[in-house]
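Supplementary Note 3. Input sequence used for the single-chain structure prediction.
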Amino acid sequence: MSSRDGQVEPLSCAELGRYRDAESALRDPQVQEQYEGQWVVAYQGQIIAHGDDPRTVLQEASRLVKEQDHRVVFCARDDPKNWFKDTSAVDAELANG
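The predicted structure, written as discrete structure tokens, is reproduced below.
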């Protein structure tokens, strides 16, 4: 992480673990399918809180596992067929130069 004065601060082991938990939740197809459309917090490889409101999910995670700086992520299936569904001809022309 970086501070305001431009110095880089190293991540603690706990902080790195929270980022890894969040990444794992984002990449796990079972988690993405089970919690599609919801916010989730993972801790030590397990989903410990989930729901429709990210603040409420973070509060629940903090209640369950104290003194951790949890990361909340959104579960949404990324279907490549829908990537350009709403793209107009002008958008496509701009993208292709």
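The chain has one domain: 13-95. The CA atoms of residues 80 and 86 lie 13 Å apart.
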